[in-house]
Amino acid sequence: MLPLLTLQPALCLTSLGFVLDLILLLRTRIHLYWHPLVPRIEEEVDDVDPNSETSANLLWEEFRILTKYTIPVFGTHLLEYSLVIASVISLGHLSTTALAASTLGSMTASVTGYSIIQGFASTLDTMLPSAWTSSRPQLVGLWSQRMAVVMAASLLPIILIWFSSESILLFLKQEPEVAHLAAVYLKYSVIGLPAYAFNSISRRYFQSQGLFAVPTRVILCVAPINALLNYTLVWGPDAIRLGFIGAPIATAISFNLISIASIVYGVFYVPRTAWHPLSRRCFTSLGVLVQLGLAGVGQTASEWWSWELVGRKFFSLLANHYVAQSVFFSCCQSVRITTFLYFEALVKFGNLGWVRPFLQASLSF
Questions:
Q1: What secondary structure letter does DSSP report for 74?
Q2: Is 47 within the bounds of a domain?
Q3: H or E element at residue 296
């Protein structure tokens, strides 16, 4: 009975997250549907008169387009997930304590940091598709710059929490050795935190333009490097082996490599249509992003926090709970990938634009 009672808060918080997801999705659809837009991502189905096609044919075309958009998005988040799971695997072979500390550190990072960043970044899911299909596509770059300013401000309290995490974890009755190593894990993870925030923005910057494969290509190149770094820094030769701290350092380096590669790709291989020159305007209209971002944080946090916090409480009742908790945390991370797949539907819905064919919009929804 006790485990069931323990899981009830998770079910309530997850249900709240689903409701917030639906509200945000409907609000985005309404915003994109009623604002005059100009289609910029060319698809064959957009040239077809909806009145001359059957609903079945249009449904098949929309399904085909959304599948084409979804595959690279899914691949992007799957490869990004591999960056985190690689450190868990490498540290799991060191000791049970190292595995417990890495799991606790990753869970704390997700609850206090990554969920906040993803919540604020979800605001761009609303802003960028409509900006790209407007008469001023350079607003995509401007809103991305504004979000970077908001992200920079939000990183400060996150970094403070991570650097004082040992005392917080001890206050929460964690084992002293595990709490100490988890705090060390978080301190070295700070190296990659700004890059993680930048990547969450740059990914949406590319995908809002229909360039769904760009983030996938970047992470596809970095993922093998991350695996090599984890092996080298955790298990490599004595001259370069760092042991436990090698795992968070490897992940942080990988996040920074993704940022550098994204900048290079955006500067040299992507048209400048969506880019806005750096100016003081990036410090204006930040209140809109903060307001929408807080709603996004509530949406994301209600889902992430519920299973991770309650999952930890549940598995603390079991023997060898650190191992079970590590497996549970990894499964939660993999399931979470699917929550990012709605963005390609937002892009398609926004790209229907000025013409606003209601049937196609309904099918995309």
A1: H
A2: no
A3: helix 286-315
d(CA 306, CA 261): 34
Residue at 180 is within a domain: yes
Residue 65 near residue 45, CB atoms below 8 Å: yes
What is the Cα–Cα distance from 201 to 147, expressed in whole angstroms?
8
Residue 35 lies in a domain: no
Q: Which residues contact 48 (CB under 8 A, 6 or more apart)?
A: 58, 61
Q: What is the pTM of this model?
A: 0.78
Q: How far apart are CA 185 and CA 183, in angstroms?
A: 5
- Encode pLDDT of 31-75 as tens digits: 444 444 444 555 554 555 555 556 667 677 777 777 776 777 777
- Provide the CB-side half-sphere exposure for 347 (13 A, CA): 27
* Strand boundaries in 311-353, DSSP class E: none
Range of the domain at 295: 69-364
Number of domains in the chain: 1
Rounded to a whole number of angstroms, the distance between the first and last alpha carbons of the chain is 40
Residue 130, sorted as left (phi over 0), alpha (psi -120 to 50) or beta, turns out to be: alpha
**The pair of three-digit structure tokens given for residue 46, joined into one six-digit string:** 């957009």
94-141 residue pLDDT tens: 888 888 888 888 888 888 999 899 889 988 988 888 888 788 899 999
Residue 37 lies in a domain: no
